[in-house]
């Protein structure tokens, strides 16, 4: 499957959303089975839905850094999750992060108070949990992150094709 062009504010990145979803689904069942913190959500519905389009690039950059450094990079995540799929996800996130950094360097990524506050809310919920439970919770909620990412493709598909066709 080819990469999809995602329009995040003024930044365009290519993301293999199908591949990300495939690797997430391969670990989802085991992660959900390990999640004992049923009543807690890191990605509360309003956090992802209400990100302003102009700040989506910046918010995604913060979110990917969180997953790469705090979730996939944690010792508790590496021994309990299937390493191949989480490794593929982490590498894909690093690649997207690199593209976002270029946008940021070219001043195409707007960072505002909203992005910072939303990320702080996620981190506060994450830090309340034990490290292993927090990593399990974050990986289990990747489906919501992927749905949010995919929304930048489907709702903006036609204009992108017209611009780049």
Automatic annotation (TrEMBL):
Subcellular location(s): the record lists:
Secreted
Identify the domain of life: Eukaryota
Task: Report one GO cellular component.
Answer: extracellular space
Q: Which UniProt keywords apply?
A: Cytokine, Disulfide bond, Secreted, Signal
Disulfide bonds listed in the record: 11-103, 57-109, 58-111
Primary subcellular site in the record, as a coarse category: secreted
For this UniProt entry, the molecular function terms from Gene Ontology, in alphabetical order, are: cytokine activity
Q: What does this protein do?
A: Immune regulatory cytokine.
Which family is this protein grouped under? Answer: Belongs to the IL-10 family.
Recorded protein name is Interleukin family protein
Q: Which organism is it from?
A: Alosa alosa
Instruction: Give the lineage.
Output: Eukaryota, Metazoa, Chordata, Craniata, Vertebrata
